[in-house]
Write a structure and sequence with these properties.
- This protein has 365 residues and is mainly β.
- The chain has 4 helices and 13 strands.
- It is globular, with a radius of gyration of 23 Å.
Length: 365
């Protein structure tokens, strides 16, 4: 092979890698639109419940993709535990004791969930404000289960009562709906985005249950993100940050505080199709809950998570497929259950043109 031919081959390989990197944004937003899709018992804020699910954003969230319809499907599993105030908060919410008496609570909350999530998304070809605009919505179906074991002592003046035992609950049903809009811009190796999303509370929710699928109230969330993408080296890293405003829960009259969240990822491509890397998140409630039990105070929540990921890109007929497996271990939690969670994502989207057409040039510029 001549030096000229080798040079052309290298340029083609880099171009193909850059497209594959851009294609991964489907995987990111197959998750990126999956906002707050964990069941109630695995989150933060009101009795351990929040809208944003940490970890839903992974590789290349800000990179523009190929126009047209795409579909993401995710299997999500989580196992978490909590003690003390978090377990007490769940008992208060489901009405198992009065929050107006003195309480000594020595108990543990254990919960797990298995969910299937579907996220159709349409990416428009025509620019909006100089960027690429996408709209999608996510729905889910699955099972949530929770158990509280321990001892509860309540007292009024000189009188006290103690109860030992276990409370268990499980539910298999559908969850809320989560619409999402994104707008993305590209400038060489730098990519920028902004997003808006929210919760339409139509899922299975009962304030008297220990386990739920829906969260029982509306929410809106917005923020932005950045992705560095270097196709010559295969290096990439990303970060997405945002704030959640929660509306009052009409059943409990509790309004969760404002939440801040930051999801990040870093990856290295081993070839044009396979990459490995790390993912992580930070979640912090920045204002108090209102309307809840005075025993709990502001009940601000916090958690950090980190773990590995691996991805694989492959053709599916005239479409492009993507598989991603990632896992998080949680730590430094406060006022929320914590443990570990795994995500298995399959996404499919339109494939890029195989030749250097004007459309392909716009996609990979």
């Amino acid at each position: 092979m001549s030096i000229s031919d080798r040079g052309q081959r290298v340029q083609q390989d880099l171009s193909d890698l850059k497209y594959n990197l851009r294609f991964l944004r489907l995987g990111a937003y197959a998750l990126g639109a999956l906002l707050a899709l964990s069941p109630e018992i695995s989150r933060a804020d009101e009795s351990g419940v929040s809208f944003w699910l940490p970890g839903q954003v992974d590789s290349l969230p800000a990179v523009p993709g190929v126009p047209g319809w795409s579909l993401g499907a995710v299997y999500y599993h989580t196992t978490v535990s909590a003690f003390g105030a978090v377990a007490a908060a769940r008992e208060i919410q489901i009405g198992r004791f009065s929050p107006t008496v003195n309480v000594s609570f020595n108990a543990s909350l254990h919960a797990q969930a298995d969910l299937i999530l579907l996220n159709p998304t349409y990416t428009f070809a025509s620019p909006v404000l100089g960027g690429q605009f996408s709209m999608g919505v996510t729905g889910l179906f699955g099972r949530s289960a929770a158990t509280i074991d321990g001892t509860l002592t309540t007292g009024i003046g000189a009188f006290a009562a103690t109860r030992m035992g276990s409370i268990s609950d499980s539910i298999t049903s559908v969850g809320d709906l989560y619409p999402m809009m994104t707008l993305k811009w590209n400038s060489g190796v730098h990519n920028f985005m902004t997003y808006a999303t929210g919760d339409i509370p139509v899922g299975a929710y009962d304030p008297n249950r220990l386990a739920n699928i829906g969260i029982g109230h509306g929410a809106i969330d917005g923020g932005g993100g950045y992705t560095y993408l270097n196709p010559a080296t295969g290096h990439t890293f990303s970060g997405v940050a945002g704030f959640t405003y929660n509306f009052k829960n009409p059943d409990t009259q509790v309004q969760s505080g404002v939440d801040f969240h930051f999801d990040w990822s870093a990856a290295q491509f081993l070839s044009k199709q396979v990459f490995v890397g790390l993912v992580g998140y930070a979640y912090q409630q920045v204002s108090d809950d209102t309307g809840g039990s005075p025993l709990l105070g502001g009940f601000r929540s916090r958690v950090l998570g980190v773990g590995p990921q691996v991805g694989y890109i492959f053709p599916v007929g005239n479409m492009q497929g993507y598989l991603n497996l990632k896992a998080y271990g949680e730590f430094d939690q406060e006022n929320r259950p914590a443990g570990w969670n795994t995500w298995l994502t399959f996404a499919i989207s339109p494939a890029a043109p195989t030749e250097a057409t004007p459309t392909r040039h716009l996609i990979t510029k």
